[in-house]
Structures are given as structure tokens and as C-alpha cells.
Amino acid sequence: MQAVLPQLRGAFALAIAFRRHPDLLIGARLGSPLVVGYGEGETYLGSDALALAPLTQKISYLDEGDWVVITKDGAQIYDAENNPVTREITTSGVTAAAVEKGNYRHFMQKEIFEQPTVVAQTLSSYIRPLEQTVALPQMDFDLSKIERITIVACGTSFYAGMVAKYWFETFARVPVDIDVASEFRYRDPVLQPGGLALFISQSGETADTLAALRHCKANGQTIAVVVNVPTSSMAREADLLLPTHAGPEIGVASTKAFTCQLAVLAALAAHLALKKGKLTAAEEHEIVEHLIEAPAALNAALAHDEDIAKMAHLVAPARDVLYLGRGPDYPLALEGALKLKEISYIHAEGYASGEMKHGPIALIDEAVPVIVLAPSGPLFEKTVSNMQEVMARGGKVVLISDAEGLAEAGDGCMATIEMPKVHPLIAPLVYAVPVQLLAYHVAVAKGTDVDQPRNLAKSVTVE
């Protein structure tokens, strides 16, 4: 291996078995994750703690460039310079029970319904309900000195970052740049000294995001990460680790990790606003009150599962679907379109509602369902105006709103989905539920592989 590994280029995680040496296994990693699992008289190689959960919770993460020789006597790890090293053995805390479907038909369905519980678990780590304050993990830098935030993520995590941009700028009045990780380094971004670079990832191993993190670190940025795997590569390289407590997410299309990311980002935005002097103690108490209401609101949203299942057949025959939303609901429109694409293979696009008349309205006809996310509030009338433009051109609208919004604008819609009346702060968490359930039930109606969509992987560890 000393001679072979230096010749390899790119990212890899290797497990090499030998026909003539059945008691020998060699593993090596560069760029992609690899872990050693320690059982009773057995040793394993796996991609992460989740993969080894049915076998053992005692694991060691290999560092960048490490390779390992596994025999019946155990494991010996070597670093990139071929020196024998010892890597810390940790307890993953992931059990086999956590990766079973239970009474649910699919993992994705189970994970959608776990959201009230896991969001409550996540928020319990970031708020003190009795004092009605936000509490973040200890950090070695002064948050009040942060003058600019750069958010980098991919896919669903990117849409969580888009919502966070609204929150950071509205509450803390701190300017925010946001990039998809695969583009970030290649535009040679301007990184302000003393800036905070915030990375969002379910796995903490996404190759594009991890490369962007290292680029920011090399350019003097303070690194914060929002991840669901607190032992992941990103978590280990961060200055501020903000774990979500969603538990293992098996379905490839992310659901509960997304809402937990939003919960953490809302708490971070409130805390940053307080540190920047843009939020009074009374205003912080009010934000905490609304965050505490989120799990109950998620439960109320899930109560409409059967209604959504009954109307999924209206969307399932479509070749194209459009999603519309304004403000923080615009990222939710993008997320809804992504979910539908991922698991039902229907072409879908999300748009800011006001952009419809700048081109996409040309696509509208009777065969194109339009999903409109419009909670009642300051942006409701504008969104409904855009929705009526669609209906006037024969578009078939599914309106997702609260009872007040449906009473005002629900007439003439192909279908309506009622959500609980919630404060605009937690609306993105709550309105994630109907777009997830709609994508799920449409995919079930079409008979696609919900948990393992074609061409997709749970953790994208190649660039």
C-alpha cells in the first residue's frame, strides 16, 4: 500500500479483500469517509457509523490519507506517511432500531412523521424554555464581531440556508452571501476578514461542501457547521459545531434533517441578533415562544396527511409542476419542487411568485398543476395576486394556506391543503410538511422507489 496509495488521484474510500488471504482486509481513504468498527472478536470497515449500526457502536474515523490493515487479531491504522497511529475509538450512539421502518411503509414516511419529535429534541439543545432564551454551544470567538456571513450548502441544505439568509438579515441585520457548494470555490469569492462561513449538511461528508469549508478555513474565515452527524468530517473541522438531533435519516430525499436544520438556524439567527444588539430580551422571549410552538404546529400539519393522499392523484399524471412562494416560502417552493423531482421523477420547478410574469407564466395550461404556498400574513395578498394570474390562464392551482387564507382565496382552486395558523418565523418549518407529503403520496401513486430514487445517493462524497 505504501507504493500504491501515492499513485491514486481523486477521492476514494477503499476496502480491499484478498482471495489468497481470507483473514486480511485493507482499507484506505482520501476525500471520502471510512470508519473502522470494533465488535466482539470482530472488526469491520464501513462508510459511516450508520452503516455499522446493526453490528457495533464502537468506531474509529480514519483521518485524511489514513489506511488500515485488518486481521483476525484487530486493526492497525497508518497515516499518510505510513507511520503506525492510533485513532480515538468513540461510541456512535446509533442503534439498529434507529434504522428500521417500524409500522411505516417507507423510511421517508417514517421520517416525515418523526419531525415533531426530532424538532423538539433539537430545539431542547438550543433554547432554555423557563428563561425563554436561546443558548448556543460554547464558542472561542465573539459572535457580536461578525460582520458578514457566507452560507454554503447543496440541495435541500442549500434551501435551508436560503431561509436562514432571510432570518439573519431580518433579525440580526448582518449581510449574507449564499452559494451552492459546487460553484463556490470556482468563482473565487471575496471573503471578508473576520467573516463567518456557515456550512449546512445532513451527513457532514458532502464532498463539495467539505472542499468549500477547507477553502474558507485557508482564507481566515471562522467556520460554523450545521450537521446531523456530530462525528463527521465537517464537525471535526469546525470552530462552532451546531448539531441537529434528527437521528439517522435513511430515505435519500431529506425530510426531518431539513426541518431540524431550520430549527437550529432560527435559534442561531435569534442569538446573533441578540449579540448584535438588534433584539431586546422581550423580543428574544417572543421568538423562543414561537419556536417552542413549532412541534405542535408540525403535528397539526401532519394531521392532514389523508387529505393530501386523496388529492395526490390530481398531480401524479402531470409531466410538469410549478411551485410558487414569496419571502421565506420561496425556498420552500424550491424544496417542494426538488422533492417531487427526486422521488416521483416529475419535472418540477420552484419560483418566487412575482417572477411568474417574467417568463414562466408561458408554461401555464390545464396540464400544469401549480402548487402555491401562501400562509396568511404580510405577503399573502401579493402571492394570491400571482396565483390569480395563473388561474386566469387555465392553470390548475393547489393552494397551501391556513384557514384564513383558504377562506379568502381558496375558491376556484383544483385542491386546497389547510395548515395551522402560525407565526411567520416558524412557517417554513410547518410548510415543509405538506410539500414533503405531497411528493411522497404522488411517488407512491406512481409506484416509484421512494426511499432509493434512481441515480441518487444519500451522501454525495464525490465532486
Structural overview:
This protein has 463 residues and is an alpha/beta fold. The protein contains 14 helices and 21 strands. The strands form five sheets. It has a five-stranded antiparallel beta sheet, with no helix packed on it. The chain has a five-stranded parallel beta sheet with strand order 13-12-14-15-16, with helices on both faces. A hairpin with a 2-residue loop joins strand 6 and strand 7. The protein is globular and about 70 Å long.
How do the strands of the widest beta sheet line up side by side?
1-2-6-7-8
The shape is: globular
- Helix-and-strand structural type: alpha/beta
Q: What is the typical, i.e. mean, pLDDT?
A: 89
Largest sheet: 5 strands, antiparallel
CA-based gyration radius: 23 Å
Please indicate the percent range of residues in DSSP E strands (runs of 2 or more). Answer: 15-25%
Number of helices: 14
Distance between the termini: 25 Å
Q: Tally of extended strands? A: 21
Helix content: 25-40%
The residue ranges in which pLDDT falls below 50 over 5 or more consecutive positions are none
Descriptive key words:
globular; alpha/beta; 5-stranded parallel sheet; 14 helices; single chain; 5-stranded antiparallel sheet; 463 residues
Summarize the structure.
The chain has helices spanning 49-52, 107-113, 115-124, 155-172, 181-184, 207-218, 233-236, 256-275, 281-302, 305-315, 329-344, 380-392, 403-409, 427-446; strands at residues 12-17, 25-30, 35-38, 43-46, 58-61, 67-71, 74-78, 84-85, 90-91, 127-128, 133-134, 149-153, 176-180, 196-201, 222-227, 240-243, 320-325, 347-352, 369-373, 396-402, 415-419.
